[in-house]
Design goal:
This protein is of the alpha+beta class. The protein has helices spanning 3-16, 31-45, 51-62, 82-91, 104-113, 131-147, 163-169, and strands at residues 20-26, 67-74, 122-125, 157-160. The protein has a two-stranded antiparallel sheet with strand order 1-2. A two-stranded parallel ribbon has the order 3-4. α1 (3-16) runs parallel beside α5 and α2 runs antiparallel to α3. The protein is elongated.
């Protein structure tokens, strides 16, 4: 089994445990290439215009042709009293959203550890790459809620939607 496949499996295992992950890679470059890149890096980090974009562009120059050598993971502890605070907000009928850039499985585990999602609560995933499928998932779920007289009420469900799908969901004809 290749290191890429083994590492991918490890990353999935780490994500299921709610861990933060970091891939490690290496590339051999000449001293001359490094000096040339380092000049560009110094210019980018001191740029007064579009500094973040400049830094990203220069970073991309050195981050190419990397050879994967492994991955690592660390626990990312919740802030003190976060689960209790979220639980009290929910008990007060305050809607709570968790926004994260994590993989979905990691986000689900974080939601469980902070008591935002409880065992037995339905996970409703309306994410999709195709805008019409996002629309369909939302309208299908809404129809089920209407049929059961649950629209406008608190429901025991956790909604999952990725950023791209959220953009589609916010289109005028879906809202």
């Amino acid at each position: 089994m290749s290191i890429r496949i083994r590492t991918g499996k490890h990353l999935d295992d780490f994500a299921r445990e709610g861990l933060r992950t970091l891939c490690l890679g290496v590339s051999d470059i000449s001293e001359e290439a490094f000096k040339d890149w380092n000049k560009k890096w110094k210019q980018a980090t001191t740029s007064l215009v579009d500094r973040e974009k400049e830094i990203e562009n220069v970073a991309n120059l050195i981050e190419g042709d990397l050879r994967l050598i492994g991955a690592t993971a660390i626990g990312d502890k919740l802030q003190e009293h976060a689960p209790e605070t979220i639980e009290m907000l929910l008990q007060a009928d305050i809607h709570v959203w968790m926004l994260t850039g994590d993989k979905q499985i990691t986000a689900e585990n974080i939601a469980k550890s902070c008591r935002l999602h409880k065992d037995g609560t339905e996970l409703v995933d309306v994410s999709d790459d195709v805008p019409t499928k996002v629309r369909s998932k939302i309208t299908d779920r809404l129809e089920k809620l209407k049929k059961n007289g649950k629209v406008g009420q608190n429901n025991e469900m956790t909604l999952i939607i990725d950023g791209k799908s959220l953009t589609h969901a916010m289109e005028e004809d879906i809202r």
